[in-house]
Amino acid sequence: MLKAVVLIGGPQKGTRFRPLSFEVPKPLFPVAGVPMIQHHIEACTKVPNMKEILLIGFYQPNEALSRFLVSAQQEFKIPIRYLQEYAALGTGGGIYHFRDQILSGSPEAFFVLNADVCSEFPLEEMLTFHRLRGNPETFLMLGTTANRKQSLNYGCIVANADSHEVLHYVEKPSTFVSELINCGIYLFTPAIFRHIGAVFQRNQQELLLEENANGWQRAEAIRLEQDVFTALAGQGRLFAYKTEGFWSQIKSAGSAIYASRLYLSCYSQCHPERLAQNRTGGPTIRGNVYIHPTASVDSTAVLGPNVSIGKGVTIGAGVRVRESIILHGASLQDHTCVLNSIVGWDSTIGRWARVEGTPSDPNPNDPYAKIDSETLFRDGRLTPSITILGCNVTIPAEVVILNSIVLPHKELSRSFKNQIIL
Amino acid sequence: MKALILVGGYGTRLRPLTLSIPKPLVDFCNKPILLHQVEALVKAGVSHVILAVSYMSELLEKEMKEQEQKLGIHISLSHEKEPLGTAGPLALARELLTENSEPFFVLNSDVICDFPFADMVRFHRHHGKEGTIVVTKVEEPSKYGVVVCEADTGRIHRFVEKPQVFVSNKINAGMYIFNPSVLERIQLQPTSIEKEIFPVMAEQGQLYAMELQGFWMDIGQPKDFLTGMCMYLQSLRLKQPERLHSGPGFVGNVLVDPTAKIGANCSIGPNVTVGADVVVEDGVRIKRCTVLKGSRIRSHSWLESCIVGWSSSVGQWVRMENVTVLGEDVIVNDELYLNGANVLPHKSIAESVPEPRIIM
Ligand SMILES: Nc1nc2c(ncn2[C@@H]2O[C@H](COP(=O)(O)OP(=O)(O)OP(=O)(O)O)[C@@H](O)[C@H]2O)c(=O)[nH]1
Ligand SMILES: Nc1nc2c(ncn2[C@@H]2O[C@H](COP(=O)(O)OP(=O)(O)OP(=O)(O)O)[C@@H](O)[C@H]2O)c(=O)[nH]1
Ligand SMILES: [Mg+2]
Ligand SMILES: [Mg+2]
């Protein structure tokens, strides 16, 4: 049997996702209409013989997470549990800490998935590729091609062209190493814990030499990438499976819009029921659009491409929405125009107001370009980005909000451009 | 009586509109700027209008020939080969202006107000001297040349260019009346009437100032054009409210040509003029704008403080503001944002203009 682990991080992570991560844990932020990690879970449940999915992170138990667990278990008919680390243990420390839970029932292998990626998740292909080798002492990581410049922001893999063995691994190098990058999607066998365990032992030895150290915590904090993969490379144990399917990180809020576009575009294959259709009496739909069944959308509105409309959202007459995510309870009054933006939960946009951001899409002329999740500021100036309205923001009628980030519960009284509004 | 109207400037500050037609022919509140003046002159008893022209005169000539018939007056054009400034054109038209001894009007072509022509004649005859200029009060005199005159008679003492200490709040309103003898002072060469002729006349006690009542605006640049439009519409509200449009969807003072079509669920006004054959589609919001003949504003757009040039098309969900001026036959694609854009004629705009600039 098989299992899967999703590394969901914790509250201190995801700062580039503010102000949206104030309201909801980033892994639950809706991408193409469903929580980010539901895409992971769905992909896992499609793998035959998948018996359990574990979410590992360091969030305090919270209502949003519990509700998600309940509804996902109902939907996918598979046990899904949340395992909470006592502190941030890194991408390797968490699975090591909970190794007994993972190994109970004796899985043949288990997937480990970073929560903040979007992907086609070719898990079955990975499994086939792994089984072909027939060696339970080997592990597999999913790789994809990046351009030379952007590869430096990722974990870089040098692999043997024929055997696909990882010969060299380096996390975020400062000079070019390889165009093949780590997707944060792995297939491990139980043998992986011997290798993580070795790192743990070494950490503990080092800590014993130091005085007054709180040994446990520090020894258990282990990074898969730097501590484990780098050591496994060239040992005949770590292999790379290269995917040509779509893949992106979801670090900034802007990348959530991009990720939505990628998922929406595969809905025509896997979830046609989630794509809104043009029908008489309904709004005009251009391209791929997701509308939650409880949303109320006027028939004169024009939506799409790449729009996700959340639960209980109200869209008035003559409203235009393109390349945006409208979160639950928001209200877009008549004639508003929302482009390249995320409209927060329960926010209200007044008549004829314009809420617009600048897309941060990857260079469309470079097939290997990835989205840049750079920092908000460059040379002391806010870089033009998508516009984000936090939760419960009120935008008055007829103003324009351009390339701005509005923190939650603000009531604006005029136009703003290129600003962060506290 | 005769009147000479100075229409020979290039109108550079009202570009891009004046790249298509001469400034005097640009519609202000649905009527060519020049016609506002000519009609008022006719009312005051003027029967011969001389247009002092230099560039793009064919269009003007054609247009004014039509008006000649309608108004039942004589309109002649005085062509200058080189721009003669604001006084030189009088010398060029010397023969026409000195046919008899009656005083004549001289006007800048781009001021708008309640034209006080009959009052000017009365005032001028009353003081009996060579010239009268109309003055108007402004709030910030340091930006203009001001006129210092005697409070009760109006006799002008002197002119002060951009005064740094307050000497007067009255400025030249661009409307004059002169006796034919003024021509003895003017040579046939480029000359500025304000700088070279008036100071001498004032010194000799031959120039009087009549203070204008009510609104006044030099509409020679887009920002002031829109301000002047607001003033003109307010005066219409007081004098001829029946010419303004009212009803659901209209707010404040709005002038709509009868041939224009306005869609459902729009909110138009305050201070909007919509020209002939304009089509405003559904759900459009317009305030403080002039929309010129033949344009189309597509649904759900939002426009404030803009001039939309002839036969232009503004796409759906477009936002235009901050003195955006579209020249003739400009196309603005759907969903764009234009902030203070100045768009030359026959351009098609496919990208937003978030900060003020000129689109060549
Ligand atoms: N359970 C758990 N998950 C973690 C922890 N740290 C990171 N993660 C998750 O692991 C995934 C990868 O996170 P990182 O390694 O921080 O991110 P990265 O992809 O290297 O990108 P950077 O943030 O640029 O370093 C994300 O889904 C995180 O939520 C941790 O301490 N515990
Ligand atoms: N006939 C004639 N009229 C002139 C000449 N220069 C200016 N005018 C007119 O004098 C009036 C006042 O001039 P301005 O306000 O400077 O207007 P303008 O020169 O047309 O426009 P700008 O290029 O924006 O300065 C306007 O009615 C002009 O048409 C000239 O050389 N000859
Ligand atoms: Mg990392
Ligand atoms: Mg000039």
Task: Detail the topology: elements first, then pairings.
The complex is a heterodimer of chains A (422) and B (360).
Chain A: E1 2-9, E2 30-31, E3 34-35, H1 36-45, E4 50-57, H2 63-76, E5 80-84, H3 90-97, H4 99-103, E6 109-114, E7 117-119, H5 123-133, E8 139-145, H6 148-151, E9 155-159, E10 166-171, E11 180-188, H7 192-209, H8 215-220, H9 224-232, E12 238-242, E13 247-249, H10 253-270, E14 284-285, E15 289-291, E16 296-297, E17 302-303, E18 307-309, E19 314-315, E20 320-322, E21 324-326, E22 331-332, E23 337-339, E24 341-343, E25 348-349, E26 354-356, E27 377-378, E28 381-382, E29 387-389, E30 394-395, E31 400-402, E32 405-406, E33 416-417, E34 420-421
Chain B: E1 2-6, E2 27-28, E3 31-32, H1 33-43, E4 48-53, H2 57-71, E5 74-79, H3 88-92, H4 94-97, E6 104-108, E7 111-113, H5 117-127, E8 131-137, E9 145-149, E10 156-161, E11 170-178, H6 193-203, E12 207-211, E13 216-218, H7 222-239, E14 254-256, E15 261-262, E16 267-268, E17 272-274, E18 279-280, E19 285-287, E20 289-291, E21 296-297, E22 302-304, E23 306-308, E24 313-314, E25 319-321, E26 324-326, E27 331-332, E28 337-339, E29 341-343, E30 348-349, E31 357-359
Parallel strand pairs in B: 1-4, 1-6, 4-5, 8-12, 14-17, 15-18, 16-19, 17-20, 18-21, 19-22, 20-23, 21-24, 22-25, 23-26, 24-27, 25-28, 26-29, 27-30, 29-31
Antiparallel strand pairs in B: 2-3, 6-11, 7-13, 8-11, 9-10
The complex binds guanosine-5'-triphosphate (2 copies) and magnesium ion (2 copies).
